[in-house]
C-alpha cells in the first residue's frame, strides 16, 4: 500500500482507488468512489507523517522492552522475592526513550 493510498483511506476507509507510481496526479477512482482533492490528500499525508514521527519513542521502546515472557517471569520473581526488577527494567527503557 502506498503512502497516498494510506492517506486516501484515512480520509475515506471505503475508497476504491489505485495510484500509479505514487503520483498524486495518477489516481484512478473505482466503483463510484467520490474523488478527494489532491490538496486534502497531501494534507492528510503530512498529518500521518507527523503522527508517525511523533511516535518514534514508542517504536524504540518496543524494541528494547523485555519480551512478555521475560516480563511475566520478572513479575513472578518480584512477588516471590519482594523485589521490583520488572519496574526497574521498564523504567530504564522509558528513561532511554522519553516521550
Account of the protein in words:
This protein is mainly alpha-helical. It folds into two domains: 3-54; 57-96, no CATH class. The protein contains five helices and two strands, in the order αββαααα. Helix 1 crosses helix 2. The relative contact order is 0.11.
Structure described in brief:
The chain contains 5 helices and 2 strands. The protein is mostly helical. The protein has 2 domains: 3-54; 57-96, no CATH class.
Total domain units: 2
**Count of helices?**
5
Question: What would the principal axes of the Cα set say about the shape?
Answer: elongated
Indicate the mean pLDDT: 95
Point out poorly predicted stretches.
none
Structural class: mainly alpha
C-alpha-based Rg, rounded: 22 Å
Helix content: 55-70%
Number of strands: 2
Order of helices and strands: HEEHHHH
Most strands sheet: 2 strands, antiparallel
Placed side by side, the strands forming the largest sheet appear as: 1-2
Estimate the strand proportion: 5-15%
Question: What's the end-to-end separation, in Å?
Answer: 29 Å
